[in-house]
Amino acid sequence: MRCHLRNLLTLILLTVFILSPSAYATAKKLIPMGESIGIQLQLPFVYVAHDVLLPNGQWLKKGDVITKVNGESVSSVEKLKQQMSANDLTISVKQKSQQRDISLTNEQANNILPFLKDETDGIGTLTFIDPESKQYGALGHQIIDGVLNAPPDFTNGSIFLASIEQIKKSSPGNPGYKISVIEKNDIRLGNIKSNDSYGIFGNWESNLKQSLRKPIDIMHVEDIELGKAELYTAIEGSEVEAFDIDIIKIEDNFLQFIVTDKNLLEKTGGILQGMSGSPIIQKGQFVGAVTHMFVEQPTKGAAITVTEMLKKKP
């Protein structure tokens, strides 16, 4: 986790997950979004998602990478399935820096398939679209794969519109979260070209006219004020709403704020996992994006300024 604010231990990332952002640095107006999005990154390898006890007493451990089947390289679950036609299989497994071979029957190999993955997915919030370049930014922080415990290498990625089906409210010490599903039409909104410290970025592929919000000016850091602002996010279905917050601290290019909106507090208890990327607006100008929550005080959140988000990756 990366955060430039103090009290690092009290913060939690709000996500359950080549174009450089420098392309956006000259943007003058952005469309603030706030929609929940499903995020999918296709990885160039197959890994074990859960610990699995094999019939021979050996374990496949969470995070192990399946590199070969019967000596042939494996780069996807689909390719692995195609190579499992033989009755007896030798699976090469990489665990950290060590490599080992495991012998399995075809039936045993099929039993471990549900525990194998070749993608990282999650839910976050769309931050902005640049109407000039037709590029977008989301999340405000990097996607870290929960199993691999690292930002994953990926071959391609996609974002989809997600709908909020249920909310698990936050309470002190217990971060809440959004329970979301990808919309039924399953239409890709855009690709993912980079997964950097300040978010995910890519090309927007949907019709901009579908957004009811107009492009607004970007607020420079020196113009941001303590006090009232708004947070755009979705907490029911796919509808984006504006909620009241108070900015309580401005430190370099990072902010702290308190949720004051009674409706949001009643429904969510404050900030939720899945809200990362939610735009913050002050006096009709684009201020920044939510990135973290304070675990012991879920009504309090942290954000990155949009000017910082638009910079080159570190």
Automatic annotation (TrEMBL):
<dbReference type="InterPro" id="IPR036034">
    <property type="entry name" value="PDZ_sf"/>
</dbReference>
<dbReference type="Pfam" id="PF05580">
    <property type="entry name" value="Peptidase_S55"/>
</dbReference>
<dbReference type="InterPro" id="IPR008763">
    <property type="entry name" value="Peptidase_S55"/>
</dbReference>
<feature type="domain" description="Peptidase S55">
    <location>
        <begin position="93"/>
        <end position="314"/>
    </location>
</feature>
<keyword id="KW-0732">Signal</keyword>
<protein>
    <submittedName>
        <fullName>Stage IV sporulation protein B</fullName>
    </submittedName>
</protein>
<feature type="signal peptide">
    <location>
        <begin position="1"/>
        <end position="25"/>
    </location>
</feature>
